[in-house]
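for ur thesis appendix - Succinoglycan biosynthesis protein. copy paste whatever u need, i formatted it the way the template wanted (i think)
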Amino acid sequence: MDNVQHLVPGKLTTAIVICCYSDKRWDILNKAIEAAARQVPAADEIVVIVDHNPALALRLCAKRFETPVRIVENIHPPGLSGARNTGISVSRGEVILFLDDDAVSDQDLLATLVRQLEDPSVLGAVSAIRPLWETDRPSWFPDEFLWTLGCTYRGLHPGPVRNLIGASMCIRRDVFDHTGGFDSGLGRTAKALPLGCEETELCIRATKALPHGRFVFEPSSGSDHAIPADRATWKYFLHRCWAEGLSKASLSLMAGSGEALASEKTYMTRTLPQGVMRGFADVLLGQPSGLLRAVALGAGLAATAAGFALGRTRAALTRPFTSVPARALEPVE
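the 3d part is after this line
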């Protein structure tokens, strides 16, 4: 297969990279690190990247972990993409499992995803990402929009996928060697509007560079992704949809509308209409919340489309596509 590593018999070396930025997530961050340390079999290394928060880095360095954990400060621009690129630079594993700082992984997560990568055509794999609600789940929240919370959404099926979801994804190091790292212009930052799509852009770029490779969704294992109360609101839901529209606008200029929006077309023409029909069916069965979910589906689509319309114009005028060069990901001692 062109430019894709041929695996030889034997154990793939593995690294787990957890990116963090806020002291406010201290409790869930520790749970995420502890879950990473409990993987069976264990990862060869666990690296925690602190995104431009020296106080948090010092606090982590002072903590005693049962398993060796390296604490490294982000050497790239602030944001999730820069932090992940630092993780790529400082780790050594042939396979890198990226976990969010608020995602608590199953004990067999790493083994399950690495098993997928034993197929040399698989460039990366993503697990099931389950919402762990801090409060009761809102009755109006539709499964089809769980992506707004970084979770697996209704309509995503096991097997090949265009892109991975960042909270719990495993990628070959070879992918970064051939394509460079995550685009820092798309990754989230602590202060900016929650733009995303950096995983999508990377996956599109990777499949162009490695055309016989693919990414897969393997839901037999997964992570519980913490959802705080302030994200279980209409305000956050619509804000996140708007931001996704803005991100997709930038992505469509980088990668072309065909590739950037291929999955979205199926999502809009099949997944969302089916969700609306389920909502109305629930109303007929005496469940009023079905109507609220149908309304949320329409509102989410409208907010995303509005963000895309504005973002497409803004991005075309202000931001040309520039991917992270491979040299930015040279190993760091």
